[in-house]
């Protein structure tokens, strides 16, 4: 099948074509095949004499997958042009895809003389250049604002609409606030089935309203219709198991008890869909009310909207196609949530990749338990990792309510370990030592309470009894040697701050000592700071282990591993600290963590320490290279 190649010009509004104005526009190439690399877009000879281009040709920039490429141009409408001059040009490219050329594209419109604009502003709630989905129903609000009363009995009208959309109604009456200085109306339209992928959607929003004798500006919507890749709608849950607080446990803390949730929307041709509205809800009605949601900035709350039978989130992808939000448990009770992403009008309804569990462990006692945890080769007392093996095997006993799709979650001292299994074959998974868990879930030489819980899709939960043990070591706490590490190691700084003069070098023989973690006069902090450097993606294509983390990565887990004669353990950190809260100089693009003084003091006796980090990129878990050094942090006398 021949490649489906398209070339479009976007970003030029008729209202912006004013004599003397500089205009910027984008040429976008898209194809079902890979677009040839290192190609250009060119302005063909013969364009209007009354415009001057910044450059006659521009190199293409390619999106991942090479199915989409763009070039940004600019031109100025010359000041000596006569009134209403014709503006015309044609763009062409030497790029091909699948051996097929792209057809050139012409543009023609008229410029006008600049006049004083006395019109009032009017806005719409959807992005004016949104990528929409073929078959999708889109609702939006038109808002008028003025410092003077807005005329009554006015309405909103739609004009110049492209033939590939159908509005629910051609106009809508305005509703007014008590001051009559603000008014709004809601409209909706459908992107018609049969619309060509990547075709233009266009319409103008106008109003009969005036304010103080002045009209309101018309709003132009100029987006595209796209065939959605339904798989791209499936949400990825970074931390699917969260803890909730039992009624006697007090209020729920949001610190380290949340999950980022993401999806990157794509068309079937691989194009990232920008500013596309989606509705996110649950498979069970009203379960969304058990949780709290925040925008990608981790600060702004998102309110639930009721659309159809259920409450949910009406969200929009960003300029890269990313849909991102944060979820927090809200109630002091167990909750299970399966999210779904819906393109309204029954275009698509796609389940998330994981189920979210908000649970915690409580000892049920013998009569109400579903069993007793056992470890292969261990009965009671001291547990050791013999022969340097990193994992032990545990068994989950049969229980009366066991069913396929039950989730078995493992806990130590009532805290979720990050390890779970889902039942898919009861005869093979129950009553056998076939579940591997790392010894590192236990703290060395400290009594540990090992347990598990079975969570059913209905939300019911059943608990095991507690196995008490004392892990005495046998294998060091260290980063997994079996994973691929593509990104730079972190940078470790002393308590003085994250400037270039406060770096602790990596390598055994270099030390984190007490002087590195103590508080100094005139400085606010104790402990150490960890920096993870981020950089522009164009610098990412470097040898493995030398890559900076991309700038768009924000959610990172740092892990500290300490081994010594006196104290050995590992600990994850997700709570970041802002550069402004550290004080002093530092890289504004970096991610910073603070390791508290109490986490790292009194390490002594052949001590050594590792740091590594991990993050998800396009649903794939990536790892940073390992930082290590020796450590001896016994306080000096008098401290």
The proportion of residues in beta strands is 35-45%
Chain-averaged pLDDT: 91
Major sheet details: 6 strands, mixed
CATH class of the largest domain: Mainly Beta
Task: State Rg.
Answer: 30 Å
Helix content percent band: under 10%
Total number of β-strand segments?
56
Show unreliable segments: none
Label the structural class.
Answer: mainly beta
Oligomerization state of this entry? single chain
CATH third-tier fold name of the largest domain: Immunoglobulin-like
What gap, in angstroms, lies between the N and C termini? 76 Å
Task: Explain the overall architecture.
This protein is mainly beta. The protein folds into five domains: 5-110, Immunoglobulin-like, CATH 2.60.40.10; 122-226, Immunoglobulins (Immunoglobulin-like, Sandwich), CATH 2.60.40.10; 241-356, Immunoglobulin-like (Sandwich); 374-471, Immunoglobulin-like, CATH 2.60.40; 491-632, Immunoglobulin-like (Sandwich), CATH 2.60.40. The chain is 3% helix and 43% strand. It contains four helices and 56 strands. The strands form 14 sheets. Strands 37, 39, 40, 42, 43 and 44 form a six-stranded mixed β-sheet that branches. Strand 42 (447-455) and strand 43 form a beta hairpin. It is globular, with a radius of gyration of 30 Å. 32% of the residues are buried.
Question: Descriptors for this entry?
Answer:
639 residues, mainly beta, Immunoglobulin-like, 5 domains, 6-stranded mixed β-sheet, 4 helices, 56 strands
TL;DR of this structure?
The protein is mostly beta strands.
């Amino acid at each position: 099948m021949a490649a489906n190649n398209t070339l479009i010009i976007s970003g030029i509004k008729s209202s912006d074509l004013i004599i003397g104005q500089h205009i910027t526009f984008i040429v976008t190439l898209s194809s079902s095949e890979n677009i040839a690399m290192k190609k250009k877009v060119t302005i063909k000879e013969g364009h209007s004499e009354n415009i001057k281009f910044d450059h006659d040709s521009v190199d293409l920039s390619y999106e991942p997958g090479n199915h989409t490429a763009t070039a940004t141009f600019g031109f100025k409408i010359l000041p000596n042009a006569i009134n209403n001059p014709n503006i015309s040009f044609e763009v062409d490219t030497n790029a091909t895809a699948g051996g097929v050329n792209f057809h050139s594209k012409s543009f023609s419109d008229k410029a006008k003389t600049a006049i004083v604009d006395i019109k009032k502003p009017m806005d719409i709630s959807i992005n004016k250049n949104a990528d929409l989905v073929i078959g999708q129903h889109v609702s939006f609000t038109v808002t008028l604002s003025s410092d003077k009363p807005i005329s009554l009995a006015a309405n909103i009208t739609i004009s110049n609409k492209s033939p590939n959309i159908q509005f629910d109604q051609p106009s809508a009456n305005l509703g007014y606030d008590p001051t009559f200085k603000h008014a709004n109306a809601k409209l909706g339209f459908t992107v018609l089935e049969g619309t060509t992928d990547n075709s233009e959607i266009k319409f103008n929003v106008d109003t009969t309203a005036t304010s103080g004798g002045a009209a309101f500006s018309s709003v132009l919507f100029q987006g595209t219709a796209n065939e959605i890749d339904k798989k791209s709608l499936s949400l990825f849950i970074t931390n699917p198991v969260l803890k909730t607080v039992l009624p006697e446990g007090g209020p729920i803390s949001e610190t380290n008890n949340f999950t980022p949730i993401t999806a990157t929307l794509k068309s079937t041709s691989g194009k990232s869909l920008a500013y596309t509205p989606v509705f996110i809800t649950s498979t069970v009605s009203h379960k969304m009310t058990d949780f709290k949601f925040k925008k990608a900035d981790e600060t702004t709350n998102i309110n639930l909207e009721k659309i159809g039978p259920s409450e949910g989130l009406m969200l929009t992808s960003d300029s890269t196609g990313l849909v991102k939000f944060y979820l927090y448990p809200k109630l002091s009770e167990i909750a299970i949530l399966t999210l779904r992403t819906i393109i309204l009008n029954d275009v698509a309804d796609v389940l998330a990749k994981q189920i979210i569990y908000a649970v915690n462990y409580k000892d049920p006692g013998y009569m109400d338990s579903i069993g007793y945890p056992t470890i292969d080769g261990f009965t009671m007392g001291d547990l050791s990792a013999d022969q340097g093996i990193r994992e032990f095997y545990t068994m989950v006993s049969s229980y009366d309510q066991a069913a396929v799709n039950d989730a078995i979650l493992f806990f130590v001292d009532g805290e979720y370990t990050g390890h779970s299994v889902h039942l898919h074959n009861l005869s093979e998974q129950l009553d056998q030592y076939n579940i591997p868990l790392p010894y590192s879930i236990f703290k060395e030489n400290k009594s540990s309470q090992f347990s598990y819980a079975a969570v059913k899709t209905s939300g019911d939960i059943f608990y095991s009894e507690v196995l008490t043990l004392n892990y005495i070591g046998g294998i060091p706490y260290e980063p997994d040697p079996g994973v691929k590490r593509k990104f730079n190691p972190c940078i470790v700084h002393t308590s003085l701050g994250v400037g270039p003069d406060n770096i602790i070098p990596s390598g055994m023989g270099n030390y984190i000592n007490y002087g590195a973690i103590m508080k100094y006069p005139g400085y606010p902090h104790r402990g150490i700071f960890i920096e993870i450097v981020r950089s522009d993606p164009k610098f990412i294509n470097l040898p493995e282990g030398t890559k900076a983390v991309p700038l768009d990565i924000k959610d990172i887990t740092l892990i500290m591993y300490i081994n010594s004669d006196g104290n050995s353990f590992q600990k994850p950190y997700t709570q970041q600290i802002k550069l402004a809260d550290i004080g002093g100089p530092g890289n504004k693009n970096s991610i910073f963590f603070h390791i508290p003084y109490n986490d790292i003091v009194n390490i002594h006796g052949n001590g050594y320490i590792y740091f590594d980090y991990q993050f998800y990129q396009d649903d794939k878990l990536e790892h940073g290279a390992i930082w290590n050094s020796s450590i001896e942090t016994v306080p000096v006398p008098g401290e």
